[in-house]
Amino acid sequence: MAIETLVLGAGQEVGKSCVVVTINGKRIMFDCGMHMGETDHRRYPDFRRISHSGDFNNALSCVIITHFHLDHVGALPYFTEVCGYSGPIYMTYPTKALSPLMLEDYRKVMVDRRGEEEQFTSDHIVECMKKVIALDLRQTVQVDEDLQIRPYYAGHVIGAAMFYAKVGDAEIVYTGDYNMTPDRHLGAAQIDRLRLDLLITESTYATTIRDSRYAREREFLKAVHKCVSGGGKVLIPTFALGRAQELCILLDDYWERMNLKVPIYFSSGLTIQANMYYKMLISWTSQKIKDTYSTHNAFDFKNVHNFERSMIDSPGPCVLFATPGMLSGGFSLEVFKHWGPSEKNLVTLPGYCVAGTVGHKLMSGKLTKSDLGPDSEKDIRCQVHQLAFSPHTDYKGIMDLVKFLSPKHVMLVHGEKPKMISLKEKIHSELGIPCYYPANNETVCIPSTHYENVETSDSFVRSCSNPNFKFQKCSSVDTCNSTSTDRNLMPELQVKDERVAEGILVVDRNKKAKIVHKDELLLKLGEK
Amino acid sequence: MPMDSQWREEPFSIHTLSVMRSQIINPSTPEPTLISILQALTHSLQSTNQTIHQTHHILKLLSDLAAHHSSISQLVLDSLRANSPDPSSITHLAVEGTVESLHAITSILDEGLVSLDDSLFVSLCFGPNVSARIWMLRNAGLRFQVRPALLLGVCLGFTKDPYPYVREASLEGIHCLCEHGVFEDVSLVDACYGRGVELLSDMHDCVRLSAVRVVASWGVMLAASNADMKNYLSNEVFAKLCSMARDMSMKVRVEAFNGIGKIEIVSEDFLLQSLSKRVLTFGKTKKTLYQSTSEQFVKLATSVAGALVHGLEDEFFEVRKSACQSLCTLTILSLEFAHEAINFLMDVLNDDSVVVRLQALETLHHMATNGFLKLQEKHLHMFLGVLVDTNTEVRYAERKILKVVKLNDRVLFKSSIDSLLENLVHYPQDEDDVLSALSHLGRNHKKYVGLIIKEIFEEVEAAFEGNFEFNSVRIAALLTLSISSPILNGHIGSIPPVMFSYAVTFLGRIYCAFSDIMDRNALLAYLCEKSRSTGHSGGDAPNLATIEVIESQITREPKEIANYKEEQQQPANNEVIDFANYILAKLPDMWAMIQSGFTNKVLQSLRCWKEELTTMMASDSLGCGDALAFTLQNLRIFKLLAQVWQHLLPEKKVSSQRAATLESKLGKLDKRVKELMSRFLGFSAEEEITVLELILVTFSLKLCKAKICSSNQTFKKLNAIYLQVESLLKESSTLPSNFIVELGKLLHESSTAINEASSRNPLPFDECLKFFSFKKFMFHGTIRHSNAELSIPNNDLEHPFPFVSGLPVGIPCNITAYNVSSEKRLWLRISMDDGFVHHVFLDLDLFEGSGKVKKFAFVAPFYRTTTKADSVTLKISIGLESLFENACPVQIRGGPKRELVLLCTEKQVYLSKVDKD
Q1: How far is Cα B7 from Cα B11, in angstroms, rounded to an integer?
Q2: Metallo-beta-lactamase domain spans which residues (chain A) (predicted)?
Q3: What is each CA distance from B479 to B423, B453, B503, in whole angstroms?
Q4: Helix B446-465 and helix B431-444, axial crossing angle in degrees, nearest 10
């Protein structure tokens, strides 16, 4: 028996996550993402490798989507509506709710703004979502007679899940993206200790070790507080889902505690809609929000108001959340043009900005007047604060998870190759677990567990149900316990329970295996 | 009462039993019916024709009866007892059935009644019934008093059970046993700990949770039982617990941090590692403890890495709180770690959970009372921001810290005052406590008040003259601050006396800020007195020029200050003695406070006084040195006693001084008490008894608390001192204190008992210690302080004395001895870093001068110059042989016959080798 893993995307790269795992004859596709950096056919995973005939319904047992980011769900409408897969698709409730928003937003940007040929239509998205079966956390689903799946909380974004799958005795976990340290609005990943044959984990930050979240929060709050108490305006360009809510909770909480009265604004649109979803999806948020939502829903921001375009030039301090995140256009750039010239104001930028955007230029200090369009006359003098909030786990988190789960094999996906190599070495040397990092379109085979059912004799069952332990004094020279190297003068007391070891497997003439108690065997042998 | 006819049939059918049950659980069943049921049940219990099954039902009904109707539960118990004179037979009755019946019967009976013989316990545990096994393991230790050794064996074995709940119950059993007794067999302790460590990686959360408990409790015990490997093992336990800080189960994480908070020794490197997620490279610990296995060291360091940081940023407030709490104890272990931890605690002050913020503040408060809280300017924003927190309790906790913290920077002090004033503006309801905080800040930071008094005075004066809008709360606060600084000693320093007059007008408002030390009338008297005081400015008009004087005084050399004070404070002599006696008179009252558990509060006031005394001593040039030294000595002893006493108090939950430090505290106490006896002259007989009593208390504490190997010797010494006290008592015909009386009884008993037994069972010294109370011990003119000054001319690190290997070297010493009478035996003590000690006898007849001050120049010979090193550092000091102790001389060849009490601090002498060519 073996587990066969075919990596269709996110092998030694970040983007278009798609891993097809075959366990004991069952085939599961984990994630179906698109690559945001590619424009040709390489944008989607190479689905033909699953089935050359295109009969995906027979080739796959199910598709599992871990969360709503486009590099994990982006290719799904294409796969179902264009390629014709119509089997079961599983994702969590929030992912099902928010994926269409993301897909539709992306489709609009692609088609309406860039004028590209559309890969799938709005109807495709709707049709695709109809095929989705939504799951709750830790809800075990029997996909078919042999295949069992169960989602675990992964942090990262709302609704993100790690998926456990079991076929026969072989068990694996596919993590998707996850976060091992909690946010304000999301919890840390949570999973049971399982007996895994294979763990497929993301490795985006395979070599980074991040400092305490508190320090980053403190700096952010200090910068914002300083700016508004000096009468300045704070512009927070951010993506509508996830970071916006995180930062807003942080600010709202601080405002409450420090009794600040400066208004916080959301530019309308996707953010408002997203907030509505967050308010409904409380059970997927962090423990603190779950604990307090009966008295106060944390996404019911007390100090937050809607922003009108006419308010851009109104006097007085304020904080504004506006999309898109990297000042690449849209409303956030428009506001930036108005507020940028005053040194009293502050702009916060996300940790990562794509090269070529205004955000990237601002961060690297190369912003010129001409970047802001022909009508801009003033120099940009505002303060800039870089945010370092990432919803991915760091090196330590990956190691902690691998250590906790102690699987028989580990596979790395969703990361850059040099970092994967470094992490692989660590996992191998520190934890002693074999580790793989296949490239795209490569297949890796690993052996899997298989248990055999055999008959047992009554006396063996009886002896097993009664406790039977012994104490043994042995000098620790015999034991290969590494922690006791310095204590070898002392005989060690050890507890042994050898009930099961007293069983002996015998195969009779009909090739039937049976376990009998050792005394029984002696008796039998004695008879003959 | 005739038995109800309906319960006649016997044995009862299931139907009858269920009718009975519904009668029992119905709360409105009349009592007579219940009693008749009870009678029927107890009657049938006695008849022999019951099956095991029926017995069980009957017992269950009886327990229901007792549980549902409290009015007749006593009756149920009585009838059960009456029907079987031997209580163990009832148990037996039940045990023959099932564990369920045992459960039923134990719920009726009181704990003490049920006893279970060991074989029965074992047979029940080893039966195939799993739930019975769990029940037995859970209840064995608590209810049946099974022999601990047996129970431990059984529990240890069941940690291998395939059922997780059995493993959990057995681990819990092992954990409980650790709390109940001390186990001699190290290998057994090791085995328990080893099982715990192994099960830390169990599949089931509940087992891991119990395993963490076992590792924490048995790990500490293992470390304690293994003196040479204590540090190594403690580090290992710490690492094991830290590795559980990243468990997926919240409860396990909470327990891990609870365990971490119990560890008594951890090397500093590991502590610092727990605050960094990156694995640090270390020198010290690695070299000393892990020479051979640096790989293993890295492994341990990896599991420690960032554990506390993870705990502090955990998703669950329970974990964050527990992590904060563990910092309480860990920060005491290392100053550097404490400094590092403050940075993280400051961030926790921004936590969204009030419980966690409060715990963080509590931890900071704990650090402040122990003197480990060193605030820096970068902390100001977070730390003082808490004063405008919306939560009342959080603000209160923050002010509690401000009341005890020692700020070492003028900027910090000023910002704290400003933030408190802001607090007052935002939350006027906090007024009382803010004023109290200001009064404490003023008392603790006299010199900083002196630095800002000018601004304060101007503002207050302007307000009183009506130049500004009269903001009365603010003025009250400023006045509180100004008048509080001279409250602990007499000098008003640079504070204009008119401030005290102003304060009188606010008396009603500010008196509660001082309620911890004086009532309203006392404050009024104090204010009136101070407002009349002329200070050293010599007039009503405040002389603000003195501020500059004070400012410069802080930076001046101590000697200059001495001169300065001499000029200014001629008539202060009596005032100093008054102050000393004021403190001494307070001590007995404070002892009462310690008895009732307010140790931290007491320690805090002691610290203020101590600082005050040390500054006064440094500037003393008059004859009050004796009074100050005497008071300081008493304060030190009092402080140590208070700290040690915490371990005697019944509810010592998270006592600040852990058992590990107890021994060192006792050692210090011993030294200080002996100093009091030897270094002060002129005690009356009564006073001498008081001092000897303190020595007796110290010995008793040693005997009952610390695991000192030489307890036999301590006991002998105790006996000797007691005899001395007894004879003194006879001579002086004073009444012995309660403590002495009780101690006498105890010693008498022990001498009549067999020697063997007394060494086995320690005498109940803690019983008679309860009778001890701190006596009022005033300073008077005849008490003199023996003191010595030692100077080695022309020697420092750059100008060492030369020596030739193998030849003796002479060290010129200038010695001045104060109040050392000629019958005393004085020694020069020369020690080297490797533990070598050499004593030189000083003949007092050779000293010049007579009476109080004796001077002597002397060349001390030093012979041990055969060392290979090129340079040698010696430590020299002067010691006085303590003559009062004549038992068990500490014989060092050619040296003093008794313990030495040092009269001066050790001086370093540098020697360097000269080449023979």
Answers
A1: 10
A2: 15-232
A3: 17, 10, 6
A4: 130
Helix/strand/coil (H/E/C) assignment for every residue in A299-350:
CCCCCEEEECHHHCCCCCCEEEEECCCCCCCHHHHHHHHHHCCCCCCEEEEC
Task: Classify burial at B651, counting beta carbons within 10 Å of its beta carbon; exposed 0-12, middle 13-18, buried 19 or more.
Answer: exposed
CA dist., res. A475 & res. B433, Å (int): 64
SS3 label, residue B895: coil
Distance of CA B719 to CAs B673, B704, B710, B715, B746, Å? 17, 15, 14, 6, 11
pLDDT in tens, B427-456: 888 888 999 999 999 888 888 888 888 888
Alpha-carbon distances of B504 from A518, B474, B510, B521, rounded to whole Å: 96, 15, 9, 11
B195, B232, B315, B357: best mutation site toward chain A, by most A Cβ within 10 Å? B315
Q: Where are the domains of chain B?
A: 5-186, 414-548, 559-769, 786-913
Q: Distance (Å) from the C-alpha of residue A212 to the closest C-alpha of chain B?
A: 7
Beta bridge partners of A475: A491
* Fold held by A2-209+391-446: Metallo-beta-lactamase; Chain A (3.60.15)
Tokens representing A240 are 């509508």
Residue A262 phi, psi dihedral angles, 5° rounding: -65, 135
Cα separation of B324 and B701, whole Å? 32
Among the residue ranges A110-124, A335-349, B165-179, the one predicted with the least confidence is A110-124
The nearest CA of chain B is from the CA of A233 a distance in Å of 21
pLDDT tens track for B282-317: 655 555 555 545 677 788 888 899 999 999 999 999
| Cβ-contact A117, A181 below 8 angstroms | no
CA dihedral of A378, A383, A386, A387, whole degrees rounded to 10: -110
Closest residue to A212, CB basis, from B313, B317, B353: B313
Handedness of CA A33, A37, A41, A46 (dihedral sign): negative
Compute the half-sphere exposure of residue B781: CA atoms within 13 Å on the CB side of its CA: 2
CA distance B126 to B128: 7
CA distance B368 to B223: 29
Residues B582 and B576: beta-carbon distance below 8 Å: no
Q: Do B350 and A483 touch (CB under 8 A)?
A: no
Cβ of B313 within 8 Å of Cβ of A465? The answer is no
Instruction: Count the alpha carbons within 13 Å of B609 in the hemisphere toward its beta carbon.
Output: 25
Query: Per-residue pLDDT for B472 more than 90?
Result: no
Return the CATH architecture of domain B5-186.
Alpha Horseshoe (1.25)
Query: Is the domain covering A213-386 a CATH 3.90.960.10 domain?
Result: no
Given an 8 Å threshold on Cβ–Cβ distance, is B187 in contact with A473? yes
Distance between B404 CA and the closest CA of chain A, angstroms: 25
- pTM for the predicted model, two decimal places: 0.71
Q: Which amino acid is at A407?
A: P
Question: Which tens digits make up the pLDDT trace of A161-217?
Answer: 999 999 988 999 999 999 999 988 899 999 999 999 999 999 989 998 888 888 888
What are the sequence ranges of the domains in chain A?
2-209+391-446, 213-386, 455-527
Cβ atoms of A345 and A290 closer than 8 Å:
no
Tell the CATH topology of B786-913.
Immunoglobulin-like (2.60.40)
Residue A74 corresponds to which tokens in the numbers above? 């982006």
pLDDT digits (tens, 9 = 90+) for B695-746: 888 888 877 765 544 566 777 778 888 888 888 888 777 778 888 888 888 7
Instruction: Tell if the CB–CB gap between B296 and A483 is shorter than 8 Å.
Output: yes
Convert B744-769 into a string of H (helix), E (strand) and C (coil): HHHHHHHHHCCHHHHHHCCCCHHHHH
Residue B755 vs residue B875, higher pLDDT: B875
- B127 to A182: CB separation less than 8 angstroms, yes or no: no
